[in-house]
Design a protein that fits this description.
single chain, 308 residues, alpha/beta, D-Maltodextrin-Binding Protein, domain 2, ten-stranded mixed sheet, globular, Phosphate ABC transporter substrate-binding protein, Phosphate_ABC_transporter
């Protein structure tokens, strides 16, 4: 009888030990703001800067894995509204209607602005004219021809660049004649570099941070300076002109987190908006929301040496 009790006690002990180990394993795999795995859907026009952010984030927090999936703006917003995506990087904030839909689902979207980038107009190097008026492009989108533009080239009919330009031109659809679209910014850049007279419309991030295979192609392009609708001056999509709000095609970038809990999405958004993430933005040629501070160290010894 005593032997049976001991065997039963041993079985119970082994069972409890196994359950504790399983609980410990589950706890170690639990997602936190700095641990776990998450898929982030990114507006294709700003993918280079997010790739840089992910590389540094994962290099800093070894237990974090961020998978970047590039899509057009319309696709990623649709995925967000249909709960197919939880965290997205986009070139616009949510509309009131979109926010209200999440509130009905009892989800409070966390929207974090982290940078300003811009839409750039590019042309072939053979085009000697490096200036263009925004009104000229808008008129072309309304169907008014102009000898300066042989054709407009967009990345994707559903992209943020198309939506941005349609809003400016106040048109519902872009004209079918002399307007071309591909799928990615890289395809636009390559096409414009090989075809004279075409004006490409791309995210400036692809020009400031070209992939290795695109670097030589970028050299075959002109980045056009643009005169705004209410300006007599031409400005370029440089960090300085974006910062001083002179360039007429600047736009804000946002992280929109709809996880609904304190997960890796919150940690990644905080990282991008924090000191290290903002330094990455600054180095990329875009304009951070907050300019990272600089620490100055005054060394008395140097001062004394100069006095002597």
């Amino acid at each position: 009888m005593l032997k049976n009790v001991k065997i039963l006690a041993l079985i119970v002990f082994i069972f409890l030990f196994a359950m504790c180990n399983q609980k410990s394993k589950n706890d170690s795999n639990k997602e936190t703001i700095l641990k776990g795995s998450i898929e982030v859907t990114v507006d294709e026009t700003v993918k280079p800067i997010i790739d840089d952010q992910v590389a540094v984030f994962e290099g800093t927090y070894y237990d974090a894995k961020v998978v970047v999936k590039a899509k057009s703006e319309a696709e990623l917003i649709n995925d967000l509204l249909n709960e197919k995506a939880k965290v997205v990087i986009t070139a616009r904030d949510l509309t009131k209607e979109e926010t209200d839909k999440f509130i009905k689902l009892k989800i409070n979207p966390r929207v974090t602005p982290f940078a300003s980038d811009a839409i750039a107009f590019i042309s072939n190097k053979n085009n000697n004219d490096t200036l263009i008026a925004l009104k000229t492009v808008i008129d072309f989108m309304k169907g008014i021809s102009n000898p300066q533009i042989k054709g407009l080239v967009f990345d994707n009919p559903n992209s943020s660049t198309v939506r941005f330009m349609k809003d400016l031109a106040k048109v519902k659809d872009i004209p079918a004649k002399s307007v071309f679209s591909f799928k990615t910014n890289e395809e636009v850049i390559k096409f414009v570099s090989e075809n004279d007279g075409m004006i490409g419309v791309v995210g400036v991030n692809w020009l400031s941070q070209p992939s290795p295979e695109m670097q030589n192609i970028i050299h075959d392009l002109n980045v056009l300076s643009v005169k705004g609708l209410n300006s007599n001056q031409y400005y370029s999509p440089t960090q300085n002109d974006i910062a001083e709000e002179k360039y007429p095609l600047a736009r804000k970038l946002f992280v929109i987190n709809c996880q609904g809990y304190s997960g890796l999405g919150m940690g990644f958004a905080s990282f991008i908006a924090g000191d290290i993430g903002q330094r990455i933005v600054l180095k990329s040629g875009l304009m951070p929301v907050r300019t990272p501070g600089r620490k100055l160290e005054i060394r008395n010894k140097i001062i004394n040496d100069k006095e002597n």
